[in-house]
Every structure is written in C-alpha cells, then in structure tokens.
C-alpha cells in the first residue's frame, strides 16, 4: 500500500502605510513570511526558502536557511513574488514554487494582514523524509481507492483524503497531457475566475509525487 503524507504551510504578509513618504518614494512597510501552523515546525523538512523580490529591489533574491523564513522591506507598490520552498529530500520532489500576491493597502484602508494556507500531499515519500514530515506535523492519509488498514499505528493517525478531481471544473479545466510512466509530467494549475484573494487553487507538480491544495483567507 502506498504511503501518503499531508503537511501544511502558511504563506502571508503584513503591510501598512508609512507615516511619511521617504525620499525614495516608499509609501509602505511590509513583511512576507512562510511558516507552519501553530503545532508544526516546518524546519524539520524545509531546507531553505527563497523569496524573489521585484528587480527594483537591491539583491532581489533573498534566501532564508533558518526560521523565521521572512523578508521585511519598504516599497510603493505591490507585485507577484515567486517563493521557492526547498525540501530536505534526497529524491523528487525537492522544491515547490508559489506565486504570492504581495498587495498593499490603499490610503484610508486598514493595514494588510493576509494569510494563505497550503496543504502539501507527498505520495510514497522515503522513510527518512516521511519521518521529517511527521515531525513537522504531517499526517498519514488513506489514498483514494486504497484498502482500509485494520490496525493503524497510534503514532500516525489515519485521515481520509479528498481526490483532486473534486476541486476541478470540467467545463473550465484544460486537459493535461501526461507522459509515460517514468518520464517527467507537466505541471497543471487552474485558477477559477474572480478575485484572487478568495480563490481556491489546485496544482499538480513534480512527476505526480506532490499535490497542492491552496486556500486563501484574510485573518
């Protein structure tokens, strides 16, 4: 029986207007971060986090090898920031990339306090990497169609998982062409229409070994 482990990540940012515009024209202070939920320490399975800022920033590639995984800066406009999370995994997948919307609040609006929750599902990870995921708060789940386990280990609680097909819209989802077994598969991402901050995103990455369920919410 295949082993599947789910673990959660939280991406978010805070932003607020400066009391006075700087000589560079900066209007906001902001901070972006990657972390685990309250009960999880992602340092167990995360090797490093790379934040790729806009090219207008000095040294736009910011690397955090230890927690807290965050970047604090000042600016005058929002932008889409690629965030790369590298895993302590000797086999694929070794990283995942998120495109994070670092938006700023307009004058007269309250400061931004935004949180985006990600659920990563690893199919059949190595024993070593599985232990790291469990230490970080990961949970073993029962894959769709798998036989029930009569005596689950008390250390690894078993939870049902929802198939990715339940999140897709057959009218709007494009067909993903998959290569033969053993070859690399193309990534697929579907974003329903509407405002980004209320979107539900489902992505497939890295040879069908990692799935990402994304939910955005404001806290």
Automatic annotation (TrEMBL):
Residues 1-136 form the YEATS domain. InterPro entries: YEAST_sf (IPR038704), YEATS_dom (IPR055129), YEATS_domain (IPR052790). CDD domains: YEATS_AF-9_like. Gene3D superfamilies: YEATS domain. The keyword ATP-binding does not apply. It comes from the Eukaryota. It holds the Pfam family YEATS. It is found in: Nucleus. It comes from Ameca splendens. This is Protein ENL. Keywords: Nucleus. The keyword Nucleus applies.
